[in-house]
């Protein structure tokens, strides 16, 4: 798998699947990041990590998943480290 910075889960999952994952995981729905206060966001970093990268406001934000650059490799194909 090749890393694609423009990848969005919405490209491969239906809205119903995304809602199911959010409900089962207990994660609250994201509120839109408000990065409009440029005086603040260019000078200070936020506690939750949103808007620390103004081109990609959710990169590094808390409670967001990381995308793998390479596919995982496990001894048993699932959970046993190599």
The SS-based structural class is: mainly alpha
Helix content: 10-25%
Q: What is the N-to-C order of secondary-structure elements (H for helix, E for strand)?
A: HH
What share of residues are in beta strands?
under 5%
Number of distinct helices:
2
Strand segment count: 0
Shape: extended
Low-confidence region ranges: none
Determine the N-to-C terminus distance: 19 Å
What's the story with the biggest beta sheet? none
The value of Rg in angstroms is: 16 Å
What is the averaged pLDDT score?
A: 80
Describe this structure in words.
It is a single chain. By secondary structure, the chain is mainly α. It has a domain at 31-82. It is 18% helix and 0% strand. It contains 2 helices and no strands. The chain has helices spanning 15-25, 38-41.
Produce the secondary structure layout.
Elements: H1 15-25, H2 38-41
Q: What's the gist of this structure?
A:
GO terms for molecular function: heme binding; peroxidase activity. This protein is mostly helical. The protein has helices at 15-25, 38-41.
